[in-house]
Amino acid sequence: MKAILKRTKFLELQTQGKFELYNNDDELVFSCDTLELPWKDNQNRISCIPLGEYKTIPRTHGAYANRAFHVQEKNGGEVKGRSHILIHSGNFFTDTKGCILLGRGFHDIALKTKKREIQKDGVMDLLNSRQTISELLELSDGFELSVQTDEKVIEKKSNSRIKIDFIKEGEIAYVNVKSKLNLRSEPNTESLVIDQLVDDTPLLIKEDLGEWMKVATLGVEGWCFGEYISLIDSNLGVVSVNSGTLNIRSDCHVKASKILEKGLNKEEKVEILEKRGDWYRVKARIEEGFVFNEFLIR
């Protein structure tokens, strides 16, 4: 089996990412979120590990015995310049000590036990970690691991926001909101509201300042908050998998039968018909079925 850890958010105190596990038929069988420390030149216990190719084996002794994977170089040695790098459970960046935490979802949480007390501090913490690790241990007794960086994600140091660098000046994009998006005279929330744009309004991108975008629509120019602008119509989705294909199923659960003999390819577009819990009902290649929402970009 092989796994891909793709780092997607690079923050001052931590690094967030996605983990995907594929079987020998290159089918996605498991996915979750990851939490690591920031990159600090591979320093022991204060840095995440370098990008590269590794292998993992079950941890059978010491801390986290039978509850973690040991990350090694492909030749079986310790990660270069490091020792005892594990994939294990934990909720906070202070739990990592340079290792990799797995879980599902992020939230700023508080914790109080006999050993420690952590207050809400505005930093996103990892959820459902023990259950996630248990599921992975049941699926695999070791796998190849590729640690990568999502090249489409860049850090905006000025405001600590993460910008997805899809949209370029001169491109057509769309409003993607549930209500209305303010079109303002200047790139700040204190400026005059020129108009309010509804979902799916087409926009011509004139200038991109990261957090704000200058757009033209219906003969009017102004500034919109970039978080609510998408390259595609909100009724369309784009398949997002690191490798392999995405299965489209007859119902909204993982044991439902596959509709297509060959799954959906990376960056393939589908029409979104409705959302049911964690699944989308979509139309793809004239067929209708369900895909897990985590692997669809809207």
Automatic annotation (TrEMBL):
Gene3D superfamilies the UniProt entry points to: SH3 Domains (2.30.30.40)
Residue ranges occupied by any SH3b domain in the UniProt entry: 170-233
InterPro entries xref list: Cell_Wall_Dynamics_Protein (IPR052354), DUF5675 (IPR043732), SH3-like_bac-type (IPR003646)
Record protein name field: SH3 domain-containing protein
Domain of life: Bacteria
Pfam families linked: DUF5675, SH3_3
